[in-house]
Specification:
This protein is of the alpha+beta class and 210 residues long. The protein folds into 2 domains: 136 residues, Quinone Oxidoreductase, Chain A, domain 1; 65 residues, NAD(P)-binding Rossmann-like Domain (Rossmann fold). The strands form 3 sheets. Strands 6-3-4-5-7 form a 5-stranded antiparallel sheet. A 3-stranded parallel sheet has the order 8-9-10, with helices on one face. Strands 1-2 form a two-stranded antiparallel sheet. The chain starts with a strand and ends with a strand.
Length: 210
């Protein structure tokens, strides 16, 4: 299979295509997934450009989506053919997140999804939402969950709340839509008329060109 790998020192120039990469047969508690889409997050650029220390040959990109093609022994959560999306903290299942829960995130320090196939423990994936394409599902993990936590889990936004959204990055666009679904009044800022039109199309009640 093909995979992109980060060289040393890490930089865009050191990225290399590996045409001989292999995703092993899944062992107990593992699944193999054919990756149909991967999204690009801000942190992926930081990883590739050496802002975070990573291993030589790391496969970048934190978020991926695809289809289960093999299932290891003891796996009951997934079947061949299931559509899945990656998780960002595979060791963290619920409750308070401690530092050890953060040391196995895909795309750095663990391998990510700039590859055609990936064999990982089942906690590295969850079922993709119905009705979304692979490309759409691949955008959920970092940006979507971050925005959900800000708006819903921590922000506890309710109808009538005023919410300020800054910019038009992935987290901001998800936050805008979640806030509107919660019944909030959204004030969005950006640096161009074109971007403000995009924000209004997604439901922003008021926009500010800074």
């Amino acid at each position: 299979m093909k995979a992109m790998r980060v060289g040393q020192p890490a930089s865009l120039d050191s990225l290399a295509l590996d045409t001989g990469a292999e995703a092993p047969t899944p062992g107990p508690g593992e699944i193999k997934v054919r990756i149909h889409a991967a999204s690009l997050n801000f942190r992926d650029g930081l990883v590739v450009n050496g802002f975070f220390p990573v291993k030589l040959g790391l496969i970048p990109l934190s978020d991926g989506a695809g289809e289960v093609i093999e299932v290891g022994d003891g796996v009951s959560e997934f079947r061949v053919g299931d559509r899945v999306v990656s998780t960002f903290h595979p060791k963290w299942l619920d409750g308070f997140m401690d530092k050890p829960d953060m040391d196995n995130s895909p795309g750095g320090p663990a391998d990510g999804f700039a590859c055609e196939e990936a064999t990982r423990p089942v906690t590295h994936f969850t079922h993709a939402p119905k009705g979304l394409s692979h490309a759409e599902a691949a955008t959920l993990t970092c940006a979507g969950v971050t925005a959900w936590r800000a708006v819903v889990t921590d922000g506890k936004v309710k109808p009538g709340t005023n919410v300020l959204i800054q910019g038009t990055g992935g987290v901001s666009l998800f936050a805008l839509q979640f806030a509107k679904l919660a019944g909030a009044t959204v004030i969005a800022t950006s640096s161009s008329a074109e971007k403000l039109e995009r924000l209004k199309a997604l439901g922003a009640d008021h926009v500010i060109n800074y």
